[in-house]
Design brief:
The chain has three helices and four strands, in the order βαββααβ. With 91 residues, the protein is of the alpha+beta class. The chain has a single domain, classed as Alpha-Beta Plaits (2-Layer Sandwich). The strands form two sheets. A two-stranded antiparallel ribbon has the order 1-4. The longest helix has 17 residues. It is globular, with a radius of gyration of 13 Å. The two termini are 19 Å apart. 10% of the residues are buried.
Length: 91
C-alpha cells in the first residue's frame, strides 16, 4: 500500500497505474493482480493498494527482482509516495 505526497496529481497516479498494469503480462509467475485507489471512506486509510497473488515464494521472488517491476518502482512509484507498506502471507 502507498501514501501519496500531498502534491501528487491524478495524472501521476494514472501514470503509476499504467506501469503497474504492465507487470502481470511481464512476469509469468503472477497469478492474480489487482490495483486501486482508496475510496476515501476513512481518513486513516492508505491511498493506494496493490494485491498480487503467486503460487509460491519463489514466484514472488521472481516478481520482486523483475527489471520492469524495479523500473516502475523507481520511476513511477517512489517519486510520488511518502510511505509504503507491504505484507506477504500464505492462504
Amino acid at each position: 500500500m502507498f501514501r501519496f505526497a500531498a502534491d501528487t496529481t491524478p495524472e501521476q497516479v494514472e501514470h503509476m497505474a499504467d506501469g503497474l498494469r504492465l507487470l502481470p503480462g511481464q512476469v509469468a509467475e503472477v497469478r492474480a493482480f489487482t490495483i486501486g485507489r482508496d475510496l476515501g471512506l476513512r481518513e486513516t486509510n492508505w491511498d493506494y493498494a496493490v494485491v498480487a497473488d503467486f503460487d509460491d515464494v519463489e514466484g514472488w521472488k521472481v516478481y520482486a527482482a523483475d527489471a520492469l517491476h524495479l523500473q516502475v518502482i523507481a520511476e513511477r512509484i517512489t517519486p510520488i509516495i511518502t510511505e509504503r507498506t507491504s505484507v506477504q502471507f500464505e492462504w
